[in-house]
Amino acid sequence: MARILIVEDNPDNMFLTVMLLQSAGYTVLSATDAEAGLILARAELPDLILMDIQLPVIDGYEATRRIRAKALTMPIIGLSAHAMSGDAERALSAGCTDYLTKPLNDALLFEKLDQYLNT
């Protein structure tokens, strides 16, 4: 099964997303800030990254740019609880493959995972 890296600073969102993905059989790696996420992305080369956009210190846009600067091509889905006009376009411009708003719709999330992981 695919390995998914979740970069999420909210403990409740992290817990729920990890439980959801693990219950579907995915191997989950997790980071609570962008710096740890960057280290895991480079070291573990996950099959897909779920990247929170509103992270402290280094936001998800910059973290995505840094991942892409290392020539890492895995799909990155940007996630935001505070969706504002233009956020999706900004996420895509930073290098995200796709963008979803929180709270996550389970069916839509699995649809996207199937789309990008070809499972």
Keywords:
20% strand, 5 helices, Rossmann fold, alpha/beta, five-stranded parallel beta sheet, 119 residues, single chain, 45% helix
Instruction: Label the overall shape.
Output: globular
Distance N terminus to C terminus?
Answer: 8 Å
- Number of strand elements: 5
Query: What string gives the helices and strands in order?
Result: EHEHEHEHEH
Count of structural domains: 1
Biggest sheet, spatial arrangement of strands: 2-1-3-4-5
Q: How much helix, percentage-wise, in residues?
A: 40-55%
Beta-strand share of residues: 15-25%
Task: Round the mean pLDDT to the nearest integer and report it.
Answer: 95
Radius of gyration: 13 Å
Global structural class: alpha/beta
CATH class: Alpha Beta
Q: What is the number of helices?
A: 5
Report the CATH architecture: 3-Layer(aba) Sandwich
Characterize the biggest β-sheet. 5 strands, parallel
Describe, in plain words, how this protein is organized in 3D.
- The longest helix has 13 residues.
- Helix 2 runs parallel beside helix 3.
- It is globular and about 30 Å long.
- The mean pLDDT is 95.
- It has one domain: Rossmann fold.
- By secondary structure, it is of the alpha/beta class.
- The protein contains five helices and five strands; from the N terminus they run E-H-E-H-E-H-E-H-E-H.
- The N and C termini lie close together (8 Å).
Short description:
With 119 residues, the protein is an alpha/beta fold. It has helices spanning 11-23, 34-44, 60-69, 87-94, 106-117; strands at 3-7, 27-31, 48-52, 76-80, 98-101.
